[in-house]
Amino acid sequence: MELRRPLVVGNWKMNRVPSDASVLLDGLRERLAKVSNVSVVVCPPFVILPAAAAAMDKTSIAVGAQNMHHETNGAFTGEISPNMLRDLYVTHVILGHSERRTHFHETLGEINKKVQAALKYGLTPILCVGETWAEREKGNQEEVVRRQIVSALKGVSSDLVSQVVIAYEPVWAIGTGKTATPEIAQDMHSEIRSILWEICDESVARNACIIYGGSVKAANAAELLAQPDIDGGLVGGASLDAEEFFEIVSCAEREYVGPAAPIFGEGPDFQSQQ
Ligand code: PGA
Q1: Residues linked to residue 207 through DSSP beta bridges, in sequence order
Q2: Which whole-number Å values give the CA distances from 144 to 83, 129, 156, 188, 271, in the listed order?
Q3: What pLDDT, on a 0 to 100 scale, did the predictor assign at position 126?
Q4: Does any ligand 1 atom lie closer than 6 A to the CB of residue 267?
Q5: How far is the CA of 238 from the centre of ligand 1 (A)?
Q6: Is residue 234 in contact with ligand 1, taking CB distance under 6 Å?
Q7: pLDDT (tens digit per residue) in 30-82
Q8: Closest by CA position to 17, among listed 25, 8, 6
Q9: Is the beta carbon of 237 within 6 A of some atom in ligand 1?
Q10: Ligand 1 atom with minimal separation from the 217 CA
Q11: Which domains does the chain have, with CATH numbers?
């Protein structure tokens, strides 16, 4: 059984300016220096990436971007390419965040191209999926998440799918203070493993890193991270406070008990997909 190491990602969104970012970056570096059993990625805005890479140099903290274009270069005014990110020592990239899908009208096809481009350049995609409240009220949450995952991973080999982190972020829980209950989150994480089993294989499903996002704070992190299929968190607002973020990472470290059999179904129920 592969050991699923916890992962906690801080998504700063459009916050902080380069001249004041060092306070937060230094605070994170100092606090997180002692963490050894959790992978941590800090995702500041593009203009802070060079400072973040310098601050985290020679630490185990990785630096990620919040978006990218799928092309390598060309006439795409205002865009940032995967190789530009690589050049800045960026190793991860958040893709398909609901704020990008909603405010910037990113389509399923574009997200698929971005996932493929990130993998081509050796960047780890953190693929965000999740339903709106209206979709959940209609009972469509699994269908919505399934469509987002299947389309984002279209044409990606199982080997490469195993390098993708999936972040389940119910849209109704992002920045609202309304966290999914641990049971709701666990159910969807288990469902995501079934989807990966169906489109790849059992080993990819069992070993996939699936993290939860949506109003994760120090106060609710432990109960979410204690769920068997929740491997970490994608943290927005609470990642802007070094102490709070450190407490979330510490929860992930405490909940990590080493290799354990994930609890999920007996594989995909193909018939129910017909
Ligand atoms: P939040 O954001 O923690 O502020 O809800 C999470 C995210 O959007 O990644």
Answers
A1: none
A2: 31, 9, 20, 11, 18
A3: 98
A4: no
A5: 8
A6: yes
A7: 999 889 899 999 999 999 999 999 999 999 999 999 999 999 999 999 999 99
A8: 25
A9: yes
A10: 3
A11: 7-271 (3.20.20.70)
Q: List the residue whose alpha carbon is closest to atom 9 of ligand 1.
A: 236
Q: Which residue blocks in the chain are alpha helix, DSSP H?
A: 21-32, 49-56, 82-87, 98-103, 108-120, 133-137, 141-152, 158-161, 182-199, 202-207, 218-225, 242-255, 270-273
Q: Are 38 and 8 in contact (CB under 8 A)?
A: yes
User: Looking at ligand 1, which atom is closest to the CA of residue 216?
Assistant: 3
- Mutation to probe ligand 1, out of 215, 241, 244 (largest number of atoms < 8 A from CB): 215
Pocket test for ligand 1, best of 66, 93, 235 (most atoms within 8 A of CB): 235
What are the residues facing 210 on neighbouring strands? 166
3-state secondary structure of 212: strand
Give the integer Cα–Cα distance in Å for 242 and 239.
7
pLDDT above 80: residue 265? no
CA distance 244 to 41: 15
Summarize pLDDT for 165-217 with one digit per residue, the tens: 999 999 999 988 888 999 999 999 999 999 999 999 999 999 999 999 999 99
Q: Determine the 3-state secondary structure of 2 from DSSP.
A: coil
The 10s digit of each residue's pLDDT in 6-19 is: 999 999 999 999 99
Active-site residue list? 97, 169
Q: What are phi and psi of 250, to 5 degrees?
A: -65, -35
- Average pLDDT across the chain, whole number: 93
Q: Which residues make beta-bridge pairs with 39? A: 7
- State the sign of the Cα–Cα–Cα–Cα dihedral 24, 25, 27, 32: positive
**Residue 112 confidence (pLDDT) above 60:** yes
For the Cβ of 64 lying below 6 angstroms from any atom of ligand 1, the answer is no
Kindly give the distance from the C-alpha atom of residue 130 to the centroid of ligand 1, in angstroms, as a whole number: 12
